Amino acid sequence: MVFWFLATGHLWNPGFEVDEKVIGFIKDYRRVFDLACIDHRGTPERPARTCTLEKYEGAEGDSDQPFLTGVIVFTSTPDKISNKYYLGPALWRTWLAKLQRHGPCVQQ
Asked: Which residues cross the membrane (predicted)?
């Protein structure tokens, strides 16, 4: 069985062996740190910011043909009612402070 997954952010060491690694992009999406993380990089009292994908016309890439098709996709929503972990955009200093938080899985 073949299983592909897209890792955004800092997942250079996913914790398992891989047969093949492909660096790519998702057309018309960009990485943003707008999602609260309370169980990995942060805690409920001090949530960290974590990477998610945001629809953004003209984001990197110029290919008209998809490389992979028939995949399961999860993207975060900026709707604060349906996504209680959405933090929204932040100033660089605020963003950096929350990105560097410590949580159960990360000690920086």
From this structure: none
Considering the domain boundaries, does residue 78 fall inside one? yes
* Least confident span in 50-54, 92-96, 100-104: 100-104
Q: Is the pTM higher than 0.70?
A: no
Bridge partners, residue 49, by sequence = 36
Domain extent at residue 76: 29-99
Residue 90, in any domain of the structure: yes
Total structural domains within the chain: 1
In whole angstroms, how far apart are CA 65 and each of 15, 27, 61, 75?
31, 10, 11, 21
The secondary element (H helix, E strand) that includes residue 36 is strand 29-37
